[in-house]
User: Which sequence fits this backbone?
């Protein structure tokens, strides 16, 4: 039900390195993590890049929406200094660069499709899935990533574009129709916020035969609790506190 690593670094390297950058993956590796979750968004010219926020301001200097800016206008921006001066000079990376890095370093991936707005959902799902499928073509030894998204539309588009890629339906609060949604998506797992999970819901998801993944768990006591509930895997911001092989 979960033939994947059980503890993942959230956004590449958790909060120890700039999120969604190669520096994040490197930081994860330094902490023994060979599994990471990261976010994928489209630029205006439809380049899939690793990015969480739909606008500049927090992790990138300046203002402006990602969906209204071409890759050429983003690729030289400072993407590391916001966290710490020692990361100054880090840049954004494209999905292709991220996939290449992770494949080369043996990092298993949970690729979160993150449409900048609802109107971009289908296209973001489609292009992300196509890029991942292309990169894994002919790589028989590599374990396929799981594609996840809060956007049901994006995941449907991913299914249409690359049906063989496993999908996880990502929700904050588990909706009443979760099982129908998973069936329609032909998903392998439900990804959910551990804060709203209950033992009964966890048992129901597991009882229905699905993988169960939680975000974002930052202490071992909580990790142990949800493991008892049957949770298969989680991502964490605190790769310094939680050992990659703790489960
Ligand atoms: O995929 C789990 C988690 O990353 C979802 O929340 O906002 O950190 O992308 P967010
Ligand atoms: Mg994410």
Assistant:
């Amino acid at each position: 039900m979960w033939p994947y690593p059980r503890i993942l670094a959230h956004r590449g390297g958790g909060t120890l390195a700039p999120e969604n950058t190669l520096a994040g993956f490197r930081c994860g590796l330094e902490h023994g993590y060979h599994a990471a979750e990261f976010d994928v968004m489209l630029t205006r010219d439809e380049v899939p890049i690793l990015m969480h926020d739909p606008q500049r301001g927090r992790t990138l200097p300046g203002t402006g929406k990602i969906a209204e800016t071409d890759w050429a206008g983003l690729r030289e921006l400072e993407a590391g200094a916001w966290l710490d001066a020692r990361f100054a000079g880090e840049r954004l990376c494209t999905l292709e660069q991220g996939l290449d890095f992770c494949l080369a370093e043996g990092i298993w991936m949970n690729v979160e499709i993150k449409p900048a707005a609802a109107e971009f959902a289908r296209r973001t799902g489609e292009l992300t899935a196509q890029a991942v499928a292309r990169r894994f073509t002919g790589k028989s030894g590599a374990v396929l990533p799981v594609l996840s998204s809060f956007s049901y539309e994006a995941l449907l588009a991913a299914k249409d574009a690359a049906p063989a890629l496993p999908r996880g339906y990502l929700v904050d609060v588990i909706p009443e129709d979760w099982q129908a949604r998973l069936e329609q998506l032909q998903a392998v797992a439900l990804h959910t916020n551990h804060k709203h999970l209950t033992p009964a819901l966890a048992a129901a998801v597991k009882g229905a035969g699905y993988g169960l993944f939680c975000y974002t768990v930052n202490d071992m006591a909580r990790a142990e609790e949800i493991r008892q509930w049957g949770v298969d895997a989680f991502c964490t911001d605190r790769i310094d506190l939680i050992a990659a092989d703790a489960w």
